[in-house]
Specification:
heterodimer, A: Aldehyde Oxidoreductase, domain 3, 7-stranded mixed β-sheet, 5-stranded mixed β-sheet, 25% strand, B: Uridine Diphospho-n-acetylenolpyruvylglucosamine Reductase, domain 3, Enolase-like, domain 1, 11 helices, 14 strands, binds flavin-adenine dinucleotide
């Protein structure tokens, strides 16, 4: 590849986001804005009870209501199922029903009402007559394993879905001078993207084709799953991913509502739309976390980490849904973080309860395990009288040790973990503000993590029970006027990938960014992607594919130019919209000239085919691992228990930074989400299985007063794995934030530190802990 | 659903007499939420926003009359000196958008135990002026709240205004929420000092089926403060006052906190607002001397 020189005007630059123009002027194309002639509106009838069965479902009154065109009930969809993306050892079902009379959570879809307007559909939804037989609810993972617990699937004889060990089982009993044990919980939270889920489906009988607009992170996966559920060929289903107002994992797969909308349009021959209402989000979109970890950290007398063990109990909700047990498995795989342990291992158990099934959410098991590991380390430091930062530094993996094989089968590729922690410590020490003299206890907490990114090698995913390939394909085309079109299988959900892919392509082809257009999201045009934009992989995997394709295209352009200029490609460079002979600027040929000729099949070197289009498939040889060190400074109101975050710092390495503004934005957003998890957010259920938090009045997202000033610093150790050197960063912010806040609160309240174990740390929770302490 | 838009107060009263089922709508920040959630389906809405005089306040000597349609934003901007307790409370309501639209009359109309205007109005002896075609009634605010979300209005009555004296001494307000803003209070508390009468007013929110006055706490504190000397408040007095305020509440357990926490937090807020208000009182005394 010696003939490829690359421009570097854009990689590393704070290039303005190309997608923002349309977003801030209201010109984004979101699914709720798709209006098709004759479009009908659907609303979902949901279960008001947590557990039992539908004994009667009578749609007649609803069907007779004005404007109603159809009511779909479980009988209409008896055989329709959606597949799980990943399955765990022992998991009995690899798919789940779209509509069933067996009820296992409040909010479960029971029927779909389709009418001429959303209002008519909603009015008629109240008229669907339902009778139920009720069974006792089951709330809480521990309760699910208690003897005599109601069984969700009596035929299983247990509520346990899966149980397996990762890494060293012996870590549970490792002997050492010091042992710290805590039971830690990260509460159940909702992803809450600003744009709710939604879909528009239209069946064209004459063509036998289904077109589905949907708010998705993974258009091809949506297509494959919808086609499979409906029994239509993949070639007859086109999914058009629109602009997406945030996904956070919640939109990585199709839900029953999408299948039902497709079913309805096939029945009725008219387009059907379903748009999630905000209140539905809290019971119908998969929430996440909800894990109880019994953690154990063993240290020797010098504070060397001997063993780390976590007994992980995951509350899956009503059934293992698309990703099921996988977040808990990732918790186990990422257990060791950036430290050495002689032994590290976890037992994973996952149970069903009568609550909404959990799913994927930014961080995917990693905030949970970071909360566990980092809380244990701080309590160990307190017990040993050691500085928590020193204790961490003493045990960190050093740069010379990469590639580093973790005790849980991860091969960390690169980094300088200690440098990140030292830098964040220095930043905290350098903070200007004098401590106010208001008598409030204050504390600073640190947390570090290693993030699993860039999923992933397809073979490794197969071994992990993930039913999708991990590669990406990029197609780069220079049009006859020398403008560039990049097509990618990843897609935009607000994270800025449209911009960063354009930056990469512009640099590789040495053209201005505004000559590059990035297209994705439409399965009719985009190259296949098994996973789409999830798992901090868009830029590492999608970008690496693009670099490969762009480099090929560049070589092709240089070969054509060399042919025409009678030079060798190595003497050529692309600059100023032309290919020039280095050192002889007069000897040049414009890109437009080359492109026009190439698309006419003229002036090509012998044997070269016409056109200027290249394609690259990149199946990553390995995962890549970003990391970060975070610190939070908090003040606690000793009387009310209210926590205020007064400062926040994050030092992050995601390898080569293509656009610092975008990376900082990802980190700010993730950190604030993590702060929400730490302080205010929780999906709560009453013992009878009724959800208690179904509006933004009860489910409290962090708002601007809860968002502290955040100082982000980026260090760049390029990944040796990824062409381009990138590591993922989309989830980084959220992973350490709860732990940093928790450690800060524990530092402020040392007398009850060992009881800071569960989120959210609401005023009431802190008061309860300090009062009984 | 009919949408009725009277332009004068008299017309509004007539409409309400004819259509007692019509739900008044002012800022709509409570009512629209109910409509969106489908918890209410009124047959008619009676829009009060065209009636200019409702959105004004007036002053005659020490007496203030605040129209039902006065927004929180205007309370903050215009009544900060005259009614500091209500203004502090208004500043904590919702977000700028909610403060621009939400009104005092709407807060009384909803009669939520968590309404933030209620504790300061209770502490400052306000009365509620209600009217129908049958005439005007002036109700002490104490008796205005009947049950959770039910007030003393007859079906044909509308709230015209709140009547309240301008502050004759320091006033304070505090509330606790799980989040800093845009949140239903876990509990709230307002305190008003009346130096001339050597007495205090204390209003409690979010900690009982209705907003309540903490009478026993008021009586105790009125007698325990060193009004003449302006001497510091004994710690024990603060504690006792807090305990009496907490005792006035009959809170519940919910997702935001237990009854025990609410009582505790009320006592804390009572002690704190007392410390702030007494500080202001002593400063004012020093300034005069
Ligand atoms: C996001 C958000 C945040 C909020 N935050 C807070 C908060 O922090 N603190 C707080 O206290 N409240 C809060 N609220 C609730 C609401 O803003 C207040 O209760 C406000 O005072 C209602 O006033 P309004 O003019 O909007 O009332 P509307 O919604 O118009 O009416 C409320 C009720 O009063 C009745 N009504 C209105 N005017 C009259 C009248 N003149 N005579 C008789 N009945 C009448 C209506 O029929 C209705 O029942 C919040 C609401 C939202 C949506």
């Amino acid at each position: 590849m010696t003939d490829v020189t690359q421009g570097n005007a854009y990689v590393g630059a704070r290039a303005p986001r190309v997608e923002d123009g349309r977003f801030v002027t209201g010109a984004g194309r979101f699914v709720a804005g798709v209006r098709l002639p004759g479009m009908l509106h659907a609303t979902v009838v949901r279960s008001p009870i947590a557990h039992g069965a539908v004994t009667r479902c009578d749609p007649d009154a609803a069907l007779a209501a004005p404007g109603v065109r159809a009511v779909l009930t479980p009988r209409d969809a008896a055989t329709l199922r959606l597949p799980c993306i990943s399955t765990a050892p022992g998991q009995r079902e690899a798919s789940y029903p779209v509509l069933t009379e067996e009820i296992r959570y409040v909010g479960q879809p029971l029927a779909l009402v389709v009418a001429e307007s959303a209002a008519a559909a909603e009015d008629a939804a109240d008229l669907v007559e339902l009778d139920f037989s009720e069974r006792p609810a089951l709330v809480g993972a521990e309760a699910a394993l208690a003897t005599g617990a109601p069984l969700l699937y009596p035929e299983w004889g247990t509520n346990l879905v899966s149980e397996f060990v990762v890494g060293d089982a012996d870590a549970a009993a490792a002997m050492a001078d010091h042992v710290v044990e805590l039971t830690l919980r990260l509460g159940r939270v909702a992803p809450c993207p600003m744009e709710p889920r939604g879909t528009v489906a239209t069946w064209e009988p004459a063509r036998g084709e289904l077109t589905v607009w949907t708010s998705t992170q993974a258009p091809h996966l949506a297509r494959d799953h919808l086609a499979g559920a409906l029994g239509i060929g993949c070639d007859r289903v086109r999914v058009i991913g629109c602009d997406v107002g945030g996904g956070f994992g919640a939109k990585e797969h199709p839900y029953p509502e999408e299948v039902l909308a497709c079913l309805a349009t096939r029945r009725l021959g008219r387009p059907v739309t379903w748009i999630e209402r905000r209140g539905e989000h809290f019971t119908s979109t998969l929430p996440a976390r909800d894990a109880v970890h019994r953690g154990r950290l063993a240290l020797d007398a010098d504070g060397r980490f001997i063993a780390l063990y976590a007994d992980i109990l995951s509350d899956l909700g009503a059934y293992p849904a698309s990703v099921g047990v996988n977040p808990a498995a990732v918790s186990a795989l990422m257990l060791p973080g950036p430290y050495h342990f002689d032994q590290a291992g976890a037992k994973v158990r996952a149970v069903v309860t009568t609550t909404t099934p959990i799913g994927s959410f930014r961080g995917f098991g990693q905030p949970e395990i970071t909360w566990t590991r980092e809380r244990l380390i701080d309590e160990a430091a307190r017990g040993l009288g050691l500085d928590p930062v020193e204790l961490r530094l003493r045990n960190m993996i050093r740069p010379a040790e990469f590639p580093y094989p973790s005790r849980t089968r991860q091969s960390y590729d690169s980094g300088d973990y200690a440098a990140a922690l030292e830098l964040v410590r220095d930043r905290v020490a350098a903070r200007a503000a004098a401590t106010p003299r208001d008598g409030k206890p204050r504390g600073v907490g640190f947390a570090c993590h290693v993030e699993h990114t860039g999923m992933g090698p397809s073979a490794e995913m197969e071994a992990a029970g993930i039913n999708a390939g991990g590669f990406e394909i990029a197609v780069v085309r220079m049009e006859p006027d020398a403008s560039i079109v990049v097509s990618s299988g990843v897609c935009g959900m607000g994270q800025g990938i449209e911009t960063t892919l354009a930056q990469l392509a512009a640099d590789r082809l040495a053209v201005p960014m505004d000559r590059v257009k990035v297209v994705f999201g439409d399965t009719a045009y985009a190259p296949y992607s098994g996973l789409g934009s999830i798992a901090s992989r868009s830029l590492t995997v999608g970008g690496a594919a693009l670099i490969g394709a762009a480099d090929r295209l560049r070589r092709r352009i240089l070969a054509i130019a060399a042919h025409r200029l009678e030079a060798t490609p190595g003497d050529l460079e692309i600059t100023g919209a032309a290919v020039r002979v280095k050192g002889d600027p007069a000897a040049a040929i414009t890109l437009a000239d080359i492109a026009a000729a190439a698309w006419r099949g003229r002036d090509l070197p012998d044997g070269m085919s016409p056109g200027l289009e290249e394609r690259e498939v990149y199946d990553p040889p390995a995962n890549v691992y970003g990391y970060a060190a975070h610190a939070a400074a908090v003040a606690v109101d000793p009387d009310t228990g209210k926590i205020e975050i007064e400062g926040y710092w994050a030092v992050t390495d995601c390898g080569v930074v293509v656009n610092p503004t975008i990376v900082e934005g990802q980190l700010h957003g993730g950190i604030v989400q993590g702060i929400g998890m730490a302080l205010t957010e929780e999906i709560a259920y009453a013992p009878d299985g009724q959800p208690l938090t179904t509006t933004f009045m009860d489910y409290l997202l962090p708002s601007s007063p809860e968002s502290p000033p955040i100082e982000v610093e980026l260090i760049q150790v390029p990944s040796p794995v990824t062409p381009g050197g990138m590591k993922g960063v989309g989830e980084s912010g959220v992973i350490s934030a709860p732990a940093a806040v928790g450690n800060a609160v524990a530092a402020a309240l040392p007398h009850v530190a060992g009881r800071i174990t569960a989120t959210p740390l609401t005023p009431y929770a802190i008061w309860s802990v300090s009062r009984d302490g | 659903m009919d949408f009725l838009r009277p332009v004068t107060w008299a017309e509004a009263l007539e409409v309400k007499a004819e259509r007692p089922d019509a739900r008044p709508i002012a800022g709509g920040t409570d009512l629209m939420v109910e409509l969106n959630f489908g918890t209410t389906r009124p047959t008619a809405l009676l829009d009060l926003t065209r009636i200019d005089e409702l959105a004004d306040w007036e002053r005659a000597g020490e007496r203030l009359r605040i129209g039902a349609g006065v927004s929180y934003a205007r309370v903050v901007g215009e009544l900060g000196d005259l009614l500091p307790g209500l203004a502090i409370a208004a500043r904590t309501v919702g977000s700028p958008q909610i403060r621009n639209r939400g009104t005092i009359g709407g807060n009384l109309g909803s009669a939520s135990p968590a309404g933030d205007a209620h504790p300061p109005l209770l502490a400052s002896d306000a009365t509620v002026e209600v009217e129908s075609v049958r005439g005007v009634r002036v109700l002490p605010i104490d008796g205005f709240f009947r049950r959770p979300k039910v007030n003393a209005l007859a079906p044909d009555e509308l709230i015209r205004a709140v009547r309240v004296d301008r502050a004759s001494g320091p006033q304070q307000f505090a509330k606790i929420g799980t989040r800093n803003a845009m949140v239903i209070a876990v509990c709230s508390f307002a305190l008003a000092l009346y130096p001339a009468g050597r007495r205090v007013g204390a209003g409690v929110g979010s900690a009982a089926p209705t907003p309540v006055r903490a009478r026993a706490a008021e009586e105790f504190l009125s007698g325990a403060l060193d009004w003449a000397g302006g001497g510091p408040v004994d710690e024990e007095v603060g504690r006792r006052f807090g305990a009496l305020v907490a005792a006035a509440a009959s809170p519940i357990d919910d997702v935001r906190g237990t009854a025990g926490y609410r009582r505790h937090a009320l006592a804390v807020m009572a002690r704190r607002t007392l410390a702030w208000a007494w500080h202001d009182y002593r400063e004012a005394g020093t300034a005069c001397a």
